[in-house]
Specification:
The protein is about 65% helix and about 0% strand. It contains 18 helices and no strands. Helix 1 runs antiparallel to helix 7 and helix 15 runs antiparallel to helix 16.
């Protein structure tokens, strides 16, 4: 309930500044208020109590000075950059709370910063982010949220044709969480695709799911040893995930998140797919979200992979939802509808389903 109360406190500012962003006299104050709330969220994400695997891993980590006692198998499994940064914090005498402040806090700031870069309705985008995505990333995990947040600057640099910066961030993200390697696909999505091709892609992904094609291919690759995760030990993590009913159950394409993305993608194709004046940035953002939706569908039989692969790319969702506003004359009407949608999603996530435990500080 605490999370919903915070979103409700943010809600009046969303409505006010969504209606006044064109008024220059409000620019400075809107920026200050926006980053004030962002700062509060960074503190909340970074100082949250957590006794998960990363807290336990931090206890076992050696310092940077004790290089010869490093567990290179663990470094390979958890990401070498994550391992080095965590070891650095331990070397300078910080506790495990430091890694939550750094990785979760940085991820929140990246989202907030690039929301302002990509949309005028950045207050609304941040509210949408708080209502859903943050619960599954920055408030639940650590590495995946950080790697997923880096998708936004990668899109920014790719759109600006700064490929070397894109590749640099790709390497960093991949050495924090290996799912980020998939982001290289964006390099081939820098164009507008014909809407008929997009409709075909959605239908074809459903066929792949119904025929168990991706599921069977994954098991075949695993049986041949092509998906062996670590060369440092004999523990095959991917095989463990695939055979576990806790991780690889069939989520189905009627899973609420998958269904919601299919609806949003279809609506965006209807609104913008047949227009020829879309910006290159919009095309790249949409294609990223479209890729996320396809991955959710085709990997649905292996739920963990669907949520990790598809979830990696849906950091663009709050931005694209605000782009819907530009297609309507009565913009504040659409803003109100989207904010009500965000509040409903927040109520479901934080009150009905209770995705997160009650908030508490400094459990580390």
């Amino acid at each position: 309930m605490q999370y919903l109360i915070f979103i409700l406190a943010f809600y009046p500012f969303v409505l006010f500044f969504s209606n006044t962003f064109s008024n220059l006299k409000f620019n400075n104050i809107s920026c200050v208020i926006y980053y004030f709330f962002v700062f509060l969220v960074i503190l909340a994400a970074g100082l949250r109590g957590n006794n998960d695997e990363y807290t336990r891993i931090f206890v076992l980590l050696p310092s940077l000075n004790d290089f010869y006692s490093w567990d290179f198998g663990l470094a390979h499994e958890k990401g070498i950059i994550f391992y080095i940064i965590s070891s650095f914090f331990k070397t300078i005498g910080l506790n495990s709370q430091s890694i939550f402040l750094f990785f979760s806090g940085t991820a929140v700031f990246i989202h907030a910063f690039f929301f302002r870069k990509f949309t005028k309705y950045y207050f609304l985008a941040f509210m949408l982010y708080l209502s859903h995505e943050i619960a599954f990333k920055e408030f639940s995990g650590l590495r995946m949220g950080f790697a997923s947040a880096l998708v936004l600057p990668m899109i920014y640099y790719l759109n600006d044709k700064k490929n070397y910066k894109f590749l640099m961030l790709l390497v960093i993200a991949s050495l924090v969480h290996y799912v980020a390697i998939l982001t290289v696909i964006l390099f081939f999505l820098q164009r507008k695709f014909h809407p008929n091709l997009l409709w075909f892609g959605l239908i074809f992904s459903l066929i792949l799911y119904e025929t168990h094609t991706v599921y069977n291919v994954m098991w075949w690759l695993s049986s041949k040893g092509y998906l062996t995760f670590s060369q440092f030990n004999n523990y095959d993590l991917i095989f463990h995930y695939m055979e576990s009913i806790d991780y690889s159950y069939d989520a189905g394409y009627f899973h609420l998140k998958t269904l919601q993305q299919v609806i949003v993608v279809s609506f965006l194709i209807y609104l913008y797919g047949y227009k020829n004046n879309n910006s290159s940035l919009y095309n790249l953002l949409f294609n990223t979200y479209y890729l996320s939706t396809i991955l959710y569908i085709v990997f649905s039989e292996l739920a963990l992979f669907a949520f990790r692969f598809g979830g990696h790319f849906y950091s663009v969702e709050p931005i694209l939802l605000t782009y819907i506003i530009y297609s309507f004359r009565q913009k504040m009407t659409i803003v109100n509808l989207i904010t009500v949608f965000a509040l409903i999603i927040a109520f479901v996530n934080y009150v009905l389903i209770v995705r997160l435990d009650p908030y508490f500080l400094f459990a580390n």
